[in-house]
Design a protein that fits this description.
This protein is an alpha/beta fold and about 425 residues long. It has two domains: about 200 residues, UDP-n-acetylglucosamine1-carboxyvinyl-transferase, Chain, CATH 3.65.10; about 200 residues, Enolpyruvate transferase domain (UDP-n-acetylglucosamine1-carboxyvinyl-transferase, Chain), CATH 3.65.10. About 30% of the residues lie in helices and about 25% in strands. The model has no long low-confidence stretch (mean pLDDT about 95).
């Protein structure tokens, strides 16, 4: 699909999308909870749909109501011999240990870029937990057979916190007692805070010892009965709306909680540092343009912010510095290089030096034809940058947004942007 963004001014109010980080964790908790779980404000991105498909394959019954999902489960009771995690990195890394709670052999696969992302972690860790695992040389597909036996282990947390999230869920559901998961060099700590928050909400107790050790005392291991959970508004998707408001607003975004544990609420710090007009009150952010200036930002714990930060930096006078580039290599694309290439087409100079990215801003953004590289956040970043460009910005493979924020272009239109989809290049 091709989508063309015409230079536009935005105005109005919009509701932030549901967080897929929150939604997928709620799905994991719901399939492990022995009872009925009601999930309010559910998401409908491709990653969310993949998570629902996984838990149904593991024995859960899912019923869609008006603004609520009802999930009935008796724990992990696979009804199928295979599951598919779509393109969700969180999905595969979180659900694999959960799947391993079953003694049945289960094939685990994915789609698109997920097929090339490293899964060596399972080959290294699962045998220590009495899990049989067969991988494709550290890639998908996997075959997993449990049941998982919780033991004290040490893992490397430098690549992704998502592996740890899956182990925390699986250990809790398995009734782990007197054992620990020890973690070296944990990245993305706020995402682990979200995981622990969901676990506590459903009744499982895990002791966080300074993010270096997670101890299971055995208390609260049998979560059961009727539960309810409200999916948070998504700071990851909301970051693009906030940056859009700073570039082409003013607009108001509703539904984003500043008390959230989501890592990407750090976008507020970047907006303040850039000089954007920003006011916050009662889960509502009002953001508008101002004389934007270059800023410095460490995105090590929130690497998904790189794309909206680059779009913001393109309109900031001076050289913006963003640290944490090493976290970008194994996303839907190699995002450091992808941002450099695609924003380069729009006349924005990006340089990469080790773990640091610099963006030369304030020199104007040109109209261009860019490519999403099948990466949802690249598509959204290019669309936001196109709002005040010197010409139209056309995005190839623009449907990549469906992975996390399928309503994104529609929401831009509701705010006044001129967006044409399914067009053909002349």
């Amino acid at each position: 699909m091709l989508t063309r963004i015409n230079p536009s001014l935005l105005k109005g109010e919009i509701q932030a999308p549901a967080s897929k980080s929150s939604m997928q964790r709620a799905c994991a908790a719901a399939v492990l909870n022995k009872g009925t779980t009601s999930i309010y404000n559910p998401g409908h991105s491709n990653d969310d749909k993949a998570a629902l498909g996984v838990i149904q394959a593991l024995g859960a019954e899912v019923t869609q109501g008006v603004d609520v999902l009802k999930i009935v489960s008796q724990g992990i009771r696979p009804g199928k011999a295979a599951v598919n995690c779509g393109e969700s990195g969180l999905g595969i890394r979180m659900f694999a240990p959960i799947i391993a709670l079953s003694e049945k052999p289960i094939a685990v696969n994915g789609e698109g870029s997920l097929l090339t992302r490293p899964m060596d972690f399972f080959d290294e860790i699962f045998p220590q937990l009495d899990i049989r695992v067969v991988s494709n040389k550290g890639r998908l597909p996997l075959e997993i057979q449990g049941p998982l036996q919780p033991r004290t282990i040490s893992i490397d947390g430098s690549l992704s916190s998502q592996f740890l999230t899956g182990l925390l869920f699986a250990y809790a559901a398995a009734g782990a007692k007197g054992v620990s998961i020890r973690v070296n060099n944990l990245k993305s700590r706020p995402y682990i805070d979200l995981t622990l928050q969901v676990l506590q909400h459903f009744g499982w107790k895990v002791e966080n010892r300074n993010y270096e050790e997670f101890y299971f005392s055995g208390a609260g291991e049998a979560a059961s009965g009727d539960k309810s959970y409200i999916v948070e508004g998504d700071w990851s998707g909301g970051a693009f709306l906030l940056v859009a408001g700073a570039i082409a607003g003013p607009i108001t975004i509703k539904g984003l909680d500043t008390a959230s544990t989501q890592a990407d609420k750090a976008i507020l710090r970047a907006l303040r540092d850039s000089g954007a007009a920003l006011t916050i009150a009662d889960r509502t952010q009002h953001v508008g343009p101002a004389a934007l200036k270059a800023f410095q930002f460490d995105a090590t714990d929130c690497p998904d912010l790189f794309p909206p930060l680059v779009a913001l930096a393109a309109y900031c006078e001076g050289t913006t510095v963003i640290d944490g580039v090493s976290r970008l290599a194994h996303k839907e694309s190699n995002r450091g290089l992808t941002l450099q290439d695609e924003f380069g087409k729009m006349g924005v100079l990006i340089e990469l030096d080790g773990d640091r990215m610099t963006v030369q801003g304030g020199k104007g953004v040109k109209g261009a034809v860019v490519h999403s590289r099948h990466d949802h956040r690249i598509a959204m970043a290019c669309a936001v940058a196109g709002l005040r460009a010197q010409g139209d910005v056309t995005i190839e493979e623009a449907q990549a947004i469906n992975k996390s924020y399928p309503d994104f272009y529609e929401h831009l239109q509701q705010l006044g942007a001129v967006v044409n989809t399914k067009i053909e290049l002349v």
